[in-house]
Structure formats: C-alpha cells, structure tokens
C-alpha cells in the first residue's frame, strides 16, 4: 500500500487530524447540501503505511457535486442532466 504519507509531506503541520480537516472542508465546499453527520473518516496502519478510509452514508436528498448530479449504475458513474436528471429524481420520490 502507498498510504497518505506523500500527501502529508506536502501539507503544513501535517497529521491525521489536519488531513481529515482538509477532506471535510473539501466536502463542505463541493457538496450541496453538505452531508453533515453522514461521513466517517478513519485512519489505520497497513503494512507500515497510513490508510485513510472515508465512508459516506446514503442520503435521501439529491446531492450535487460542484452543482452537478452523478449516479452510480453498476460499475460506472453517470452525469445526469436534463430529462435524465428529471426522470431520476421523479423515480427517487416514488421509492422514498
């Protein structure tokens, strides 16, 4: 494993806490609405490298990343726009 040591070496006053703050600030700045309480960030050592794991709970809200909606379909990521986005939102409403 490569770990986050290289990333930490490029940060001022680097440690796991600062690394987590950077991730959380990025989430706050790029996701709308902000996924408050839905993100868990943890660190562990694996073969001498520090691994950062980010787990995010599913949300009932439609979340925008940089004002764009993406969805997973199987092993691909789709950017939804126009009628595809409208249809996807309508289907979500009937499931929830």
General description of the model:
By secondary structure, the protein is of the alpha+beta class. The strands form three sheets. The protein has a two-stranded antiparallel ribbon. Strands 2-3 form a two-stranded antiparallel sheet. Strands 5-6 form a two-stranded antiparallel ribbon. Strand 5 and strand 6 form a beta hairpin. It is elongated. It starts with a helix and ends with a helix. The model has no long low-confidence stretch (mean pLDDT 91).
Give a quick precis of the structure.
The chain is of the alpha+beta class.
For the CA atoms, what is the radius of gyration? Answer: 17 Å
- Helicity level, as a percent range? 25-40%
Identify low-pLDDT runs. Answer: none
- Shape field: elongated
Strand order within the widest beta sheet: 1-4
Structural class: alpha+beta
**How would you spell out the order of helices and strands?**
HHEEEEEEH
Describe the secondary structure blueprint for this structure.
Elements: H1 5-9, H2 16-30, E1 31-32, E2 39-46, E3 49-56, E4 64-65, E5 69-73, E6 76-80, H3 82-95
Antiparallel strand pairs: 1-4, 2-3, 5-6
Descriptive tags:
96 residues; two-stranded antiparallel sheet; elongated
């Amino acid at each position: 494993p490569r770990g986050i040591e290289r990333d930490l070496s490029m940060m001022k006053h680097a440690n796991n806490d600062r690394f987590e703050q950077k991730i959380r600030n990025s989430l706050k700045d790029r996701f709308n609405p902000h996924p408050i309480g839905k993100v868990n960030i943890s660190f562990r050592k694996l073969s001498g490298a520090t691994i950062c794991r980010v787990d995010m709970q599913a949300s009932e809200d439609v979340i925008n990343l940089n004002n764009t909606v993406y969805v997973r379909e199987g092993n691909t990521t789709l950017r939804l726009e126009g009628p595809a986005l409208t249809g996807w939102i309508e289907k979500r409403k009937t499931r929830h």
